[in-house]
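Please go through the protein record below and explain what the tokens say about the fold. Record follows.
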Amino acid sequence: MSETSIINFASDNAAPVCPQLMEALARENAGPALGYGNDNTTRQMEERFRDLFGCNVRAFPVSTGTAANVLGLGTLAPPYGSIYCHTLSHIQEDECGAPEFFSGGAKLALLDGEDGKLTAEQLDKAIATSGKGVVHHVQPAVISLTQATEAGTIYQPEEVRSIGDVAKHHGLSLHMDGARFANAVVSLGCEPADITWKAGVDVLSFGATKNGAMAVEAVIYFNADKAEEFEFRRKRGAHLFSKLRYLSAQLDVYLRDGLWLENASQANRMADRLATGLRRTGYEPLHPVEANILFVSLPLDRIRKLEQSGFLFYVMGKNGEQGKVRLVTSWDTTEQDVDLFLSCLG
């Protein structure tokens, strides 16, 4: 079967680039411009982020989510520090030790939490009993939240604020992995500021690749104290592109006229449609479906039928005759895609 006939529910990374961003790259290619971010497009992109968040942010494009997370965390955590995160977080599961490497040795302090989320209470307790100030222990430095989580759930604004208060009380920084930040904002119907700087977030990894971009994320600093350090870390980490304008051009159009929210809305709607259809056929999602990711246990014979029919998805584990399946919708997922999946399943 050709890749063009596959219906993708495996990952929003597998989705194509949305046409508006391909067109933006073509327009940016018309003539020369200064390199390393000294171009008008990059300056305009940063202004769009300032307008979006309603404050004087610094915004730095990089090409991968890993780079956005670990270069940002490297400015927040010293080599002897600890980064509190969920056991399912991307920085734990899928960064190949990059947070530890780029921080010079900081330790990930892993915490469990229902539906992929941490709570202010558990963080407060963990930090209070961490041995802060004791030379024999790593020192608590950062809390990192994933928004939306790897379980497809969303931190509510009040939850982020409570965790931000804990971070401030203990003198820690608050980092947010926002690879699916757009999906979270759409789901909450809030202003981006409400779940970032107004709630105590210091640094945000602002995702775009999973939501229609070719290869670009942004590291957003709400507290500019560490922004200068980031510029050197980005260069040393090989993510200061000479032709940075091609990254900036994607973000510029992504933010213009709400394209980022439009794309995320489509992905979220299709996840909701998929979840509703699964429930009607007797399959209850394993976590609340609040963004564009859902998990469900399906019989192995149904999984094989779906795979043979051209549907692409991940089986995360097997338990007897059941398999735990992850389904991810994207900006280009259609109602027909969802309905074909449900028809095949049924």
Summary: DSSP finds 13 helices and twelve strands in the chain. The radius of gyration is 20 Å. The longest helix spans residues 259-280. The domain at 3-14+260-345 is CATH 3.90.1150.10 (Aspartate Aminotransferase, domain 1).
